[in-house]
Amino acid sequence: MGQILVAARILHAVWGGTPAVFITAHAFAAQAALKNPAEVELPDLNAAEQDVLDMPLEQLARADVVVPATDIVVSTVSRLADFDLSMTAPTSNTDTPNTSLASADDST
Amino acid sequence: MQRCQPVTDSMELTPSYSIRDPARCLVRTIAATLLLIATGPLHAAAQTSGGTAAINREYVIKAAYLYYFSAYIEWPADVFPAEGEPFVIGIYQTDPFGTALKKIARSKAVAGHPIAIKLLQSTDGLRRCHILFVPATVPLQAQLKIFDAARGSLVLVVGESDGFVERGGDAQFFVEENKVRFAFSERAAKRADRKVSSKLLSLAKIIPGS
């Protein structure tokens, strides 16, 4: 999660405003900081794996072995990165700056 | 598609939007490159070898089942020599569970007993386990030795290779329709001294004559 925070800070500093990414990264960093110190030694399971450990027996029997990776933060950062590299400028002066996540998605 | 270009008089820029400034373009390119480098490992973690973004939870599910085996099987009181003695889950030779089973051991207990995970390299100490997991990587001959060593004990021997129960194991995981299922041998399911709960048996496939 530290990597996401660093990446968000770079975007925030350069672009002057990527609040959604910035807030999300801070939320994840804060969540990691709240963990029980006794568990710090073990690497984290991803969300899909952690779900399994919290399942009751009946639900476990219905749990899919292979599930799609739906880490929203990963896909969001990856889309933003793609958008940045394209370096597309607006085609007219009436274009308004829009650095929201939605516009990044639409442009790719 | 228009690329970054020098600022001209005809262009009206707001202070917060200066994409046409070459210096800013350069800084942004560097920033985007740094972003890709910083998030590179995250991309890799989300990808499987096939290139499709997917997560395989087989061994996390199996780890959770091992915990439920311990919780839904009634172990005689005398298998715990002293109060606070751990409930021991043994893994034979190679641990395929990653951190999943260790996380369970840290956060759960079995009838008030903490859970200990032990990695066994031989059948020595096998009888000190309550559950022994035998991964599919253990060769057939070694499996037969394990069955011999566990015979007559209360150790629940759980495997995952084809025919494990038929060869002498107590329980076996198998994957069917993208779900982890498990089978119990008829002998293990009917043991009076290590009673398997009806709830667990309702989800199990019972292998008759085993």
Structural key phrases:
heterodimer; A: 108 residues; mainly alpha; 6 helices; 3% strand; elongated; B: 210 residues; alpha/beta; Rossmann fold; eight-stranded mixed beta sheet; two-stranded antiparallel sheet; 7 helices; 11 strands; disordered N terminus
Compile the SSE list and pairings:
The complex is a heterodimer of chains A (108) and B (210).
Chain A: H1 2-15, H2 19-33, H3 47-53, H4 57-60, E1 66-68, H5 72-86, H6 101-107
Chain B: H1 22-45, E1 54-56, H2 58-71, E2 73-74, E3 87-92, H3 100-107, E4 109-110, E5 113-120, E6 131-134, H4 140-150, E7 156-159, H5 164-167, E8 171-176, E9 179-185, H6 186-190, E10 195-196, H7 198-203, E11 205-207
Parallel strand pairs in B: 3-5, 3-6, 6-7, 7-8, 9-11
Antiparallel strand pairs in B: 2-10, 4-5, 8-9
Helix pairs in contact in B: 2-3
Radius of gyration of chain A: 18 Å
List SSEs of chain A in N-to-C order.
HHHHEHH
- Give the strand line-up of the largest sheet of chain B: 4-5-3-6-7-8-9-11
- Give the oligomeric state: heterodimer
CATH architectural designation of chain B: 3-Layer(aba) Sandwich
Instruction: Determine the CATH topology of chain B.
Output: Rossmann fold
Which structural class fits the helix and strand makeup of chain B?
Answer: alpha/beta
- How widely separated are the two ends of chain A? 25 Å
Number of strand segments of chain B: 11
Helicity level of chain B, as a percent range? 25-40%
In total, the number of domains of chain B comes to 1
Cα Rg of chain B: 27 Å
* Largest sheet report of chain B: 8 strands, mixed
Biggest sheet features of chain A: none
User: How widely separated are the two ends of chain B?
Assistant: 71 Å
- Round the mean pLDDT of chain A to the nearest integer and report it: 59
What is the overall silhouette of chain A?
A: elongated
Q: Shape of chain B, please? A: elongated
Order of helices and strands of chain B: HEHEEHEEEHEHEEHEHE
